[in-house]
Amino acid sequence: MHSPVNLHPGIPVMKQTGSVINRAGILPNTDYKMGLIEIEGMDFFAYHGCFKEERVIGTRFTVDAWLTADTTESESSDDLKHTVNYQAVYALIRQEMEQHSHLLEHVARRIINAIYRDFNTVTHVKIKVSKLNPALAHGGKIRQVSVTLEQ
């Protein structure tokens, strides 16, 4: 076997032993498969905001969620109990949206924490919370304001 060519100076190259080595010279773990589960356009009416009026009359929000999870078992079993059930994720997000907060950042962080608490196959979460037609102190109009957090 010949020595591998280093296409990325500064990153050591490992000898191949019949397995594929990625660009960083790391042998990928082929024992599990990662899948991206995208749940987009969840609509809610909630009472988040810094203005008293927002907390009294409420407004519309949308939430988008991107969850990376180990999908190894569900890919072969075709069984809902082996994957992240998007209906359960929606129910969890709905519960978090029902809790009043001043800031979208706070809502997004609570959602992320709850997802990690309840779904042990999830390895990465990205949440976007958008407030539609937010109130402005000095008039004007904004279609939406969004906060995206990931962990």
> Percent of residues in helical segments?
25-40%
Given the C-alpha coordinates, what overall shape results?
A: elongated
How many strand elements?
A: 4
Give the class-level CATH name of the largest domain. Alpha Beta
**Which percent range describes the beta-strand content?**
25-35%
Class from secondary-structure proportions: alpha+beta
Oligomer: single chain
Annotated CATH architecture of the largest domain:
2-Layer Sandwich
CATH topology of the largest domain: the name is GTP Cyclohydrolase I, domain 2
State the domain count. 2
Uncertain residue ranges: 10-19
Q: Quick one: biggest sheet?
A: 4 strands, antiparallel
| Lateral arrangement of strands in the main beta sheet | 1-2-3-4
Mean pLDDT: 84
Radius of gyration: 21 Å
First and last CA, distance: 41 Å
Number of helices: 4
CATH superfamily of the largest domain: GTP cyclohydrolase I, C-terminal domain/NADPH-dependent 7-cyano-7-deazaguanine reductase, N-terminal domain
Strand and helix order: EHEHHHEE
